[in-house]
Amino acid sequence: MRVAAIQLTSTPDKARNLVAAGALIDAAADAGAELIALPELFNLWGSARELRDGAEPLDGPTITWARANAQTLGVWLLAGSITERIDGAEKHANTSCLIAPDGEIVATYRKIHLFDVNVEGFTYQESATVKPGEEIVVADAGPLRIGMSICYDLRFPEEFRIQALRGANAVTLPSAFTAPTGKDHWEPLLRARAIENQVFVIAPDQRGASTPNLLWHGRSMIVDPWGVVLAQAPDSECFITADLDLDGQREVRERIPSLSNRRPSTYDWPEGR
Prior knowledge:
6 helices, Nitrilase/N-carbamoyl-D-aminoacid amidohydrolase, alpha/beta
C-alpha cells in the first residue's frame, strides 16, 4: 500500500492553508498514494486566541472540505488535526479524523497528552485551552489497522504499545514538532516507536515558522517496522510517499516476536501510576 505524508507551514490564514493542503493532496493522489496524512492543526496555526477563534465542530467547513477531497480522489485521508469546538465546553479539543474513500469519518481521535513544557525559554501550555482526550483509538483503513496519535503523544510509549496490542500494524502521528526539540528527538523517537511495536509510522510534520514564536522542525517521515526511514521530507511544503511492505512486516514479527514475548504478569506498575 502506498501512503503519503504532507508537510505544511500552516499560518493563521485558514483559506491559504487549505489551498496549500489541497494542492499537495492532489499531487500525492496523482503519485499513487492510497492513504494521505496531513499534519497537526493543518488548517490553522497561530496564537492561542487565533486557535480558539478558529475552532470548528466536526461538521464544520474544514472536515467537510477534507471529506469531499477524500471522496473525490477515492483515497483514505487522515485530517491530521484541527481545533475542535465542542458545544458547552470551555476548552476545545485537538482532534484527528480518519476519512474513508467514500467521504465518511471512520474514526476520531482527540489528543491525550498535552504539550505543557518549557523549551529554551519558551513556555507552551496546551492544557490552558485544550481538553485532553480520554480514548486510545485504533481503526481499519484498507489493509492497514491504524493507531491514531498526535505530536506530543510520541513521548508516551504506553499509547503505542496498547495500539499494537489492539492489532495496529501502522500508526499515524500528525505533528507540529518544535524546532529546538525536533533536531535531537524527532527521528530517534519515531524510529523507537516503530521498532519496539514493529509498526509502520506515518508522521507528517509542520515545518518553518507559523508565527515568529512557532518554529517547527519539519522532516516529515515514514518509518518501517525495522526502524528504517523509508522517506523523509526536505525543508519545504511538500509530500513524501512510501510503499508499505506488509509481507515484510509479518516477517519481522516472526523473526523477532517481541510482542508475543511480553510478560505482562511481571509488569507491576507503581500504584496510581
